[in-house]
Inverse folding.
């Protein structure tokens, strides 16, 4: 809730629901993810998120606002999971089918870390997918990441030490999703205005959302 570029963005109204509810509804469309836990900062400003999510029936864990690695590690202790999928809560159009695509890709390749949430070496739009590691890898990050810059984002340590990890990125199976120039995440007021232009609802498929976004987003991003 204390995002500097767009304060309170998780509770902004987006086509009938707060952004955080979009994430809750769409992540729960995944067939492979067995449990969903929201890892929230333990600040008074974020109490409204916790209260809202609990009313939705979501599981919530609160931890350090600045030590995000510690927060995620704490969240893993609330569930019996061998592998952890991370979804950014400012990705309201995240797709359950593309979370499943990532999990299947990860399982088939013996990766330490895999991702499809950003167009970095793949053809996915920004904000449709997720990241995944094993609980053992997350434990290693928690133990070895001492630099504050490596703890303010969950996987900065992996990217700073990429030679120590087997990293995988996958392309969408559906060519209708292969639009890496599209930016679907929510960082700024301009992003919010862009997403408001898209007449979408949480039950739509990834392909339906991409088709609408292609027609309504005016400032596509350049892929990395």
């Amino acid at each position: 809730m204390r995002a500097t570029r767009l304060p309170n963005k998780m509770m902004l109204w987006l086509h009938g629901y707060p952004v955080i509810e979009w994430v809750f509804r769409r992540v729960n469309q995944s067939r492979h993810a067995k449990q969903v836990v929201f890892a929230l900062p333990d600040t008074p400003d974020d109490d409204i998120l916790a209260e809202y999510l609990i009313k939705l029936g979501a599981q919530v864990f609160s931890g350090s606002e600045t030590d995000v690695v510690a927060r995620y590690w704490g969240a893993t202790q609330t569930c019996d999971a061998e592998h952890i999928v991370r979804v950014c809560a400012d990705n309201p159009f995240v797709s359950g089918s593309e979370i499943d695509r990532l999990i299947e890709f990860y399982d088939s390749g013996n990766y330490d870390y895999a991702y499809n949430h950003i167009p970095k070496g793949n053809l996915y739009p920004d904000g449709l997918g997720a990241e995944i590691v094993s609980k053992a890898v997350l434990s290693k990050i928690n133990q070895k990441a001492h630099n504050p810059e490596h703890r303010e984002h969950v996987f900065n340590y992996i990217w700073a030490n990429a030679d120590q990890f087997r990293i995988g990125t996958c392309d969408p199976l559906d060519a209708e999703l292969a639009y890496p120039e599209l930016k679907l995440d929510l960082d700024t007021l301009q992003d919010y205005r862009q997403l408001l232009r898209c007449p979408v609802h949480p039950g739509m498929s990834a392909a339906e959302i991409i088709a609408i976004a292609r027609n309504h987003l005016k400032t596509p991003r350049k892929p990395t």
Observations:
- The radius of gyration is 17 Å.
- Strands lie at 13-14, 17-18, 37-41, 59-63, 83-86, 113-115, 131-134, 167-169.
- The longest strand covers residues 37-41.
- Residues 70 and 142 are 7 Å apart (CA to CA).
